[in-house]
Amino acid sequence: MVHPGPVRTQYEVIPMSMGVRLAQARRCQNLTQEQLAEKLGVTRQAVSRWESDTAYPETDKIVRMAALFGVSCDYLLGVGELPAGDKPPSPVTRLLQEAAGKRVLLSFYEEDDYVPCDWAEIQGFDGGWANVAFVRKKKDKRDERLIPLSAVRMVTILPEGGEN
């Protein structure tokens, strides 16, 4: 029996659509469609239509999303690529890095995300998520949770050794 040699398969490179790029950039920032919609002043359904390529955002929205995601408008529109080795910026800022391991107060965009506590400690980061210990002095209780960074509105670093 004669071996036919290596099998060569040709693949067609299909460029990512604007909707796919938008959804990917949104997820990199750990935002829900609802949160993005709120930031842009549109409905969640509008964001859903953009991501499914059934509608396209207005130019001003593309510019705002590009700034929000740290990418170019060309990239979102599907006519440009991220520079080699680049990826959308991490949602973990320098200030969040400095707050890690310290006593902090956290405020959230949504009241439903609030965790009753005297103070919290950011223990580490995993992509767009933070591992946070919420501490209640009266009950001597420590509740650890993984929270999306996009839900945090403000971080206040408490003085070291001081009582809150």
Provide the descriptors you would attach to this structure in a database record:
164 residues, alpha+beta, 434 Repressor (Amino-terminal Domain), SH3 type barrels, 2 domains, 5-stranded antiparallel beta sheet, 6 helices, 30% helix, 22% strand
Task: Walk me through this protein's architecture.
This protein has helices at residues 18-28, 33-40, 44-51, 59-69, 73-77, 94-99, and strands spanning 103-108, 119-126, 129-136, 141-148, 152-157. The chain has 164 residues and is of the alpha+beta class. It folds into two domains: 18-77, 434 Repressor (Amino-terminal Domain) (Orthogonal Bundle); 94-157, SH3 type barrels. It has a five-stranded antiparallel β-sheet, with no helix packed on it. Strand 2 (119-126) and strand 3 (129-136) form a beta hairpin.
The top-level CATH class of the largest domain is Mainly Beta
Q: How many beta strands in the DSSP annotation? A: 5
Low-confidence stretches: none
The helix count comes to: 6
Report the biggest beta sheet as strand number plus sense, adding barrel if it closes.
5 strands, antiparallel
Instruction: Give the topology string: H per helix, E per strand.
Output: HHHHHHEEEEE
| Spatial gap, N to C terminus | 82 Å
Remind me, CATH topology of the largest domain? SH3 type barrels
In the sheet with the most strands, the strands line up as: 4-3-2-1-5
What's the architecture of the largest domain, going by CATH? Roll
Helix content: 25-40%
Could you tell me the radius of gyration in angstroms? 21 Å
Beta-strand percent range: 15-25%
Write the layout of secondary structure elements.
Layout (H helix, E strand, L loop, with lengths): L17 H11 L4 H8 L3 H8 L7 H11 L3 H5 L16 H6 L3 E6 L10 E8 L2 E8 L4 E8 L3 E6 L7
Antiparallel strand pairs: 1-2, 1-5, 2-3, 3-4
Helix pairs in contact: 2-3
